[in-house]
Amino acid sequence: VVGLGSEINESVHLDKLSVLAEGAQVGSQILALGNPAFDGGNMNKSTTTDISYTCLCLQTTWLIAELHIFSALYVLSNIIWIGQLYSSWRYSTLVYYFLSLLSTSFLSLHLSALLKWLMIGRRITKDDMNSSPLWVRLSNWACDYHFRATSTLLYVVGGLSRVFNIILMLHGLDIDYKSGIADLRPFFPSMMNQVVIRRSF
Description:
- The chain crosses the membrane at residues 62-82, 94-119.
- By secondary structure, the protein is mainly alpha-helical.
- The protein has helices at residues 45-81, 92-120, 133-158, 162-170, and strands spanning 7-8, 13-14, 25-26, 30-33, 38-42, 174-175, 196-197.
- Helix 2 runs antiparallel to helix 3 (133-158).
C-alpha cells in the first residue's frame, strides 16, 4: 500500500503487505519492508529475481514434503484408532475418520512447534536483514504454511480451550491460560515469540 503524497524512485521493491506512510520518500534500488515500511537496504533487481525463482523452487519442494508428512501422520493416526471403536455401531466409520483427521491435526501442530524452533528459533523481524534472505524467507514461509494448513480443524473443534493455549505456548506465543483467541489468522509461528496476550479483565 502506498500512502498519499509518497515519492518512489526507480527499481524500488515494496514487499507484500508493506505500507508506505503518507508523504514517504523512497530512493532508487531500495527494499521497503513492514508496516509502516522501513529501509531494508539496497536491492539489486537481478539478484531479487534469482532469489525469487530459487525460493519458488524450494517452496514447491517443501509442498511435496508437506504432502508426505501429512500422509505419514494420517497413517499413524489410523493405526492409533484401529480397534478403539465398536464396529457394530452405525456411525463408527464416520467417527473413526473424523478422529483420525483430528489426531493428524493434533500431531501436525506439535510437529509445527518443533519446526518453528528448529528453523526459526527466537529470531525477530529486525534480525532478518542480517541473515541470508533466502533462508529467512523460506524458513518463515515453510513454518507459517505448515501451521496454517494443519491448525484449522483442531481450532474449529477446540480453539478456545486451554489445550490450544498450550499448543500456542509451544510455538513461543506468550499467552496466559485465561485468554482465548477468536481469530487465529493473524498469528503465525514466525512472529509468535514477539506477541504477548493477556486477559485484561
